[in-house]
Amino acid sequence: MERRSILMTSPIIAAVRPFLAVIAIAAALVGCGASKGPVTYPVIGTVTLGGKPVENAVVAFASAGQAPGDAKAGSALGGQTRTDAEGQYAMSVVLDRGRTTRQGLPAGEYVVTVTKMEFPGGTQSPTSPPKNTLPPKYAVEQTTPFNFTVKTDSENKFDLPL
């Protein structure tokens, strides 16, 4: 007498089996979605003030000529990062509503701002907001002198001497 599993003989399981296969394939395809999005290129540099490296500065690249409300679906407006103890930075961009981070930025023209926020006295206080310790002209897109084009065919190194 041949024994069969209930999974093999159940008419309900037999009817549902094709749908389970479709669900498995769809789940696999969704998992592969991380490869979508813009191609990015490494962008590195060093921030200095008076020839000395600036630690813990925020370097932000914003897409030149494109307001945030004008963004096309899936396009990146830029990115931001912090400098290390040597004043060095490496840009990255956040995609998929924060689910994916990629090193570098998409090719294109960017306006670059730099800030370094510190609390007066060095400690956080609800009555004393942090202040930018760098020259204010570098903090705003309209006054910063820094513009950079991320290229596809060359090194994208952009030092920021303040």
Give a quick summary of the entry:
The chain is α+β, with helices and mostly antiparallel strands and 162 residues long.
Tell me about this structure.
By secondary structure, the chain is α+β, with helices and mostly antiparallel strands. Helices cover 15% and strands 32% of the residues. It contains two helices and 14 strands, in the order H-H-E-E-E-E-E-E-E-E-E-E-E-E-E-E. It has helices at residues 6-9, 11-31, and strands spanning 40-41, 44-49, 52-53, 58-63, 78-82, 88-90, 92-95, 100-103, 105-106, 108-115, 117-118, 131-132, 147-150, 160-161. The strands form five sheets. Strands 2, 3, 6 and 14 form a four-stranded mixed beta sheet that branches. Strands 5-4-10-13 form a four-stranded antiparallel beta sheet, with no helix packed on it. A hairpin with a 4-residue loop joins strand 7 (92-95) and strand 8 (100-103). The radius of gyration is 25 Å and the shape is globular. 19% of the residues are buried. Mean pLDDT is 79; it is low at 13-31 and 67-76.
Question: What is the CATH superfamily of the largest domain?
Answer: Immunoglobulins
- What is the total domain count? 2
Radius of gyration: 25 Å
According to DSSP, the number of beta strands is 14
The shape, in one word, is globular
Task: Give the H and E element order.
Answer: HHEEEEEEEEEEEEEE
The biggest beta sheet, please? 4 strands, mixed
**Subunit organisation of the chains:** single chain
Number of helices: 2
Q: What is the third-level CATH name, the topology of the largest domain? A: Immunoglobulin-like
The amount of helix comes to 10-25%
Supply the CATH class of the largest domain: Mainly Beta
N-C termini distance: 86 Å
